[in-house]
Design brief:
2 copies of one chain form a homodimer. With about 280 residues, chain A is of the alpha+beta class. Chain A is built from 8 helices and 14 strands. The first copy, chain A, starts with a strand and ends in an 8-residue tail after the last helix. At the A-B interface, helix 1, strand 2, strand 4, strand 5 and helix 5 of A face helix 1, strand 2, strand 4, strand 5 and helix 5 of B.
């Protein structure tokens, strides 16, 4: 499958070199699976995209426009990934926002990743990142384009054994992985980190929070540290592409085989996202 | 003057929509005045660009290549601004760096800003930003492309009376302005904030630190808070474009007419950068 993009609806142009997305990371994004031109969980993805855009003062394009562009790129392709980027358009120089300001809309289709079947069957190992996330409540939770912390954290390991890297914040609280959110289970309580000081609030995290109570879980969103994570009954990571994976190992800690990830994938209807 | 750019040497293409500069702000930049195709303080600008690139794992292109591109864009134009952006090139998706990774080189020429003559003659007012900078030692001092904090801070004021906005960090220390560095003077001591936890270390800041001792100043780079700034004998802000401006007012504090900014502009040979 060819890599394809629409930039403000056109597949003939590149992004302007004075786009504020390049200059400042001045924008937001979302990544999601797409099946035959239809994005999974579109309403929720659009809600999150729109909320994040609003949080930095951008007006999200109409849902139908984005849906149409996703359909244009993805029709006839069984399964792919779509990434939507919204930036605050062009400005010559300087942080001040031009009036009227514009918006750049980038919709990109790419091949669905080939995840190892073992990640679904046996679970995954996590690298414990040395980089600690900075605390910035004004940007916390938002899937914005300032992602150098994630890039630097991802540079810490080359061993393909690690499916992702766990990130703590400056104060030692567990936040997320570089490209996924995290849940721990103790008894029937599912806990995911509070993201009001840093981190990215993914759609799959929200879906688990919404749906897990129907399976008999209590859910909570609180701060917890590495010691709490290490002593949890089970640990899982999640994102919109791979779904949910069981964590089997982090540093010196090994968890026995668990069933939470499989149970949550079934709950989310994501059991078919393996590469099997 | 037309706005002109070279992207990897070409003026015919746009930036790829999968460039990591857009996706993650994965890159660095520098902005500088250019006179008839020759960048001011080029050796120092290149040194800082190269150091910043290295800090995030990028290899800076040879100085001569960038000099040639600046000359190509700027020859025959008396005075303009050049901005160099280096990004980690394309990747399909995900934070992992492709091997081999590429580099995107964007060199952009734009018109020199028309700064108010009053800013040079009488000094400037600063807005005191509500946004506090997050602390991230791994990115501190680097002129990287993750600048959403600056964008959000710059959105706080619309009154053209404010030449820039003062930024404190989460712990209340003075760091910089949104687009300039800051110095305070007490007696013969010039002090600028320590930028080892956040902030951007500009070339003009470094030139002042290097050259001010020859004028009889002691210089120091330390942490100080807003109270220390408010009680300083003089306050100035600086960047490579406007040079140095005297700060006359910040919140309730007014400073009498001072001569430090003019003295430093003369020292730096930047007295001709006014719009007069």
């Amino acid at each position: 499958m060819q890599f394809q993009s629409l930039i403000n609806g056109s597949d003939l142009i590149g992004v302007s070199p004075r786009d504020r997305g390049i200059a400042f990371g001045d924008g937001v994004f979302r990544t999601m699976p797409v099946h035959d031109g239809v994005a999974d969980c579109w309403d929720m993805q659009y809600h999150h995209l729109s909320r994040d855009a609003h949080a930095i003062g951008l007006v999200c394009p109409p849902a139908q426009l984005l849906k149409d562009e996703i359909a244009q790129l993805g029709s006839g392709i069984h399964r792919a990934v779509v990434k939507i980027i919204l930036t605050r358009g062009d400005s010559v120089r300087g942080y001040a926002i031009p009036s009227p300001s514009s918006l750049t809309r980038i919709v990109t289709l790419s091949a669905f990743p080939q995840y190892p079947a073992d990640n679904y069957q046996d679970g995954v190992d996590l690298h414990l990142c040395e980089l600690r996330l900075g605390v910035q409540p004004r940007l916390a939770g938002i899937k914005h384009l300032n992602r150098l912390e994630n890039v630097l954290a991802r540079m810490e390991w080359h061993d393909s054994r690690y499916a992702d890297g766990l990130l703590l914040d400056m104060d030692g609280y567990v936040i997320e992985c570089t490209a996924s959110n995290i849940f721990i289970r103790n008894g029937n309580v599912l806990t995911t980190p509070d993201l009001s000081r840093c981190g990215v609030a993914g759609v799959t995290r929200q879906r688990i929070l919404d749906q897990a109570p129907a399976l008999g879980y209590e859910t909570e969103v609180v701060r917890f540290d590495l010691t709490a994570l290490m002593s949890a009954d089970e640990v899982v990571i999640c994102n919109s592409l791979f779904g949910v994976w069981q964590v089997r190992r982090l540093a010196s800690q090994n968890w026995p085989e668990g069933h939470l990830a499989r149970q949550l994938r079934l709950m989310l209807g994501m059991q078919d996202e393996t590469s099997i």
